[in-house]
Amino acid sequence: MTSTVVEVATTVRIFPLDTVLFPGMRLTVHVIEPRLREMIRQLAKTLGPSDRRLGVVAIREGYRIGRSHGRQSAHRVGCEALMTQAKARPDGSWDIALMGQRRMRVEELVSKSRTNAVAAVTYPPEIEGPDAPMRMATALAAFEAYRNTVADNGGRQVPLGDLPTEALPLSYALATATTLPLRERQVLLEAPHAAARLQRLTLMLRVELSAIQAVASLPATRLARTNWSPN
Question: Is pTM, for the whole model, over 0.90?
Answer without folding.
Answer: no
